[in-house]
């Protein structure tokens, strides 16, 4: 069982992850609007294949830190950083950070914050993807046909599962293998399968 008490190192690492991903989020927004619009002009829902990057902190931070609230904190602070850098969505990204962080957190909460392997990462990433897609459909794509909406949700969730779920799991394993996570339960356990 993991302690729910946050140590200074937990706060520092979560904050570093959040700031780093906030910069990534900002840059990813430039890709989404510029080349993404041009590349997927024929079928805009397909642009969601690159979506999972925005959901990675909601899964990666809990996998590394194994603390209640790690996904919520990291995803939200990353959204704040991207908003401060001037994202194309303005402060609306704060709602996304809250929703995606809470949804990712739910995936780990359903495991009682005791399961940290690939199945839990996949569940957390699927929830985060569903939350993100739901907000997008409400705010930006309400006028799309029902089939486009469904395809979009499926692609966002698949991207989230592939990038945030599978990617977050294997990134955590790789970092643990280097010894970089030795101060965390994720670096000392063998339950990352």
TrEMBL record:
InterPro entries membership: ABC_thiamin-permease_prd
Keywords tagged on the record: Membrane, Transmembrane, Transmembrane helix
Transmembrane regions: 12-33, 48-65, 77-98, 118-138, 150-171
Keyword Membrane: yes
Domain of life assignment: Bacteria
Name of the molecule in the record: ABC transporter permease
């Amino acid at each position: 069982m993991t302690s729910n008490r946050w140590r200074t190192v937990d706060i520092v690492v979560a904050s570093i992850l959040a700031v780093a991903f906030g910069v990534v989020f900002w840059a990813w927004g430039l890709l989404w609007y510029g080349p993404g619009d041009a590349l997927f002009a024929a079928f805009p829902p397909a642009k969601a294949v690159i979506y999972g990057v925005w959901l990675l902190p909601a899964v990666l931070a809990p996998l590394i830190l194994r603390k209640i609230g790690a996904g919520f904190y990291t995803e939200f602070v990353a959204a704040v950083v991207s908003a401060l850098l001037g994202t194309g969505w303005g402060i609306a990204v704060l709602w996304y950070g809250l929703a995606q962080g809470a949804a990712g957190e739910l995936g780990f909460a359903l495991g009682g914050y005791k399961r940290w392997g690939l199945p839990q990462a996949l569940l957390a990433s699927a929830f985060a993807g569903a939350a993100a897609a739901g907000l997008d459909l409400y705010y930006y794509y309400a006028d799309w046909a029902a089939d486009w909406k469904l395809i979009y949700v499926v692609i966002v969730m698949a991207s989230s599962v592939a990038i945030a779920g599978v990617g977050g799991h294997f990134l955590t394993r790789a970092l643990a293998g280097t010894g970089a996570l030795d101060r965390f339960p994720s670096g000392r356990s063998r339950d990352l399968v």
